[in-house]
Amino acid sequence: MTGNNKVGGVVGGMDDDSSGRTVIGCYNTGFVTGISYVGGVIGENNGTNSVVTDCYNTGGITGGTYVGGGVGGNSWDDTVTDCCNTSSVTGKDYVGGVVGYNAYGTSAVTDCYNTGIVIGERFVGGVIGYL
């Protein structure tokens, strides 16, 4: 999967029009690359009260900003739970093994793990790059 913005192995982006949506039991095994909001499963989860659960990624992820093994960006009261990444994640800023960027409202990342290598320059974390 290759693109510029909001690139995901399963879903590119969920925004305000996707309020309350749920993605369950999905996975990606392919390489995903983009510039911004790049994720192994979802590029950007910004759907207000949307949930990503029981998903995983085993494909390599490369991007610029907001890059995650599972979800590139998770915001505005959205939740990522019981998700994992086992592959390398490489980016510049806001890079995480599971979620690159998690912010605003009650956004949460729970019961997730990463076993892959995470490489970046600023706001880099094994599970979450920026909280």
**Largest beta sheet: strand ordering:** 1-6-11-16-21
Rg calculated over all Cα atoms: 12 Å
What is the number of helices?
Answer: 0
Mean pLDDT across all amino acids: 95
Q: What gross morphology would you assign?
A: globular
* Total DSSP E strands: 22
Termini gap: 27 Å
Q: Main sheet?
A: 5 strands, parallel
The secondary structure category is mainly beta
Would you identify the regions where 5 or more consecutive residues have pLDDT less than 50? none
What do you see in this structure?
The chain has 131 residues and is mostly beta strands. It has strands at 5-8, 11-14, 22-24, 27-28, 32-33, 36-39, 42-45, 51-53, 56-57, 61-62, 65-68, 71-75, 79-81, 84-85, 89-90, 93-96, 99-103, 108-110, 113-114, 118-119, 122-125, 128-130. The strands form five sheets. It has a five-stranded parallel sheet with strand order 1-6-11-16-21, with no helix packed on it. Strands 2-7-12-17-22 form a five-stranded parallel sheet, with no helix packed on it. Strands 3-8-13-18 form a four-stranded parallel sheet, with no helix packed on it. The mean pLDDT is 95.
Concise description?
The chain is mostly beta strands and about 130 residues long. It contains no helices and 22 strands.
